[in-house]
Design brief:
Layout (H helix, E strand, L loop, with lengths): L9 H19 L9 E4 L4 H12 L7 E7 L11 E3 L4 E4 L2 E4 L2 H10 L3 E3 L2 H4 L8 H7 L4 E7 L4 H17 L4 E6 L4 E3 L1 H7 L10 E7 L13 E9 L1
Parallel strand pairs: 1-8, 2-7, 2-8, 3-6
Antiparallel strand pairs: 1-11, 3-7, 4-5, 9-11, 10-11
Helix pairs in contact: 1-2, 3-6
């Protein structure tokens, strides 16, 4: 997705990410980044959702281990339980490689029958990839556990959430759960604006930014079919 969702030239990509983060930090004043349990950040092109993603990452003291959950946009899924894992190796962006944490990935496979190794579900997917440059700029030593989910129904989501909570509790280092998700799709702006981890002890979720695609080009973008973007931090 390099060159489409974000700049494909390393220097341009780094400048884009650092610029977005600088703008987000300016809004924070002197508040320092803080540890948190989980966040939600959007995965559209940076022109649309980059400020929202930056508003999330600017607030978070990132640990070196990040579990990323993202929706399956392509419909390709070979994992029997619908949670497609890339279990080893690395993901590459123009800024370099982000290694997959193989031990944590193995622990997650053992914790839930929903999770299965499935590289094909990841190959044409963008929802994980577009957030990685933020990790690379802020935490160059970051390792990830990438999951692409083929369902959006409650029961498997609850089951996977409980398995993730067990893995996080048993891991001997801090872990951030990062959900890569846009909000309401292709309804009027007025409708989207209205719509739009307790197992680990979370008591609240803070919405740190909201926008939709119609805000990018007022008068040009059709407000009858917008995509919403929200940034959420769960302390």
């Amino acid at each position: 997705m390099s060159g489409r969702f974000y700049p494909g030239v390393p220097a341009e990509l780094e400048a884009a990410v650092t610029g977005l983060l600088a703008a987000a930090r300016a809004d924070l004043g002197t508040s320092p980044p803080a540890p948190c349990r989980a966040v939600i950040a959007p995965h559209a092109g940076y022109v649309y959702s980059g400020p929202t993603a930056a508003a999330v990452f600017a607030r978070v003291a990132l640990p070196s281990l990040v579990v990323i959950l993202a929706p399956n946009h392509t419909g390709v899924c070979q994992a029997p339980g619908g949670a497609s894992l890339w279990e080893a190796g690395a993901f590459r962006t123009p800024l370099g490689d982000v290694p997959v944490d193989a031990p944590c990935a193995a622990a997650l496979r053992a914790a839930s029958p929903l999770v299965g190794v499935d590289h094909d579900a990841h190959r044409a997917e963008h929802a994980i990839e577009v957030l990685l440059p933020f990790l690379q700029v802020l935490r160059p030593d970051a390792r990830i556990v990438p999951l692409v989910l083929a369902w959006d129904v409650w029961e498997p989501a609850r089951e996977l959430g409980e398995a993730l909570a067990r893995v996080v509790r048993e891991t001997q280092e801090p872990v951030l759960l990062l959900a890569s998700s846009d909000l309401n799709h292709y309804e009027p702006a007025s409708v989207s604006e209205r719509k739009d981890a307790r197992a680990l002890g979370a008591a609240r979720a803070d919405v740190v930014d909201y926008r939709h695609s119609g805000w990018v080009s007022p008068g040009v973008t059709d407000d009858s079919q917008v995509v919403g973007y929200g940034g959420v931090v769960i302390p």
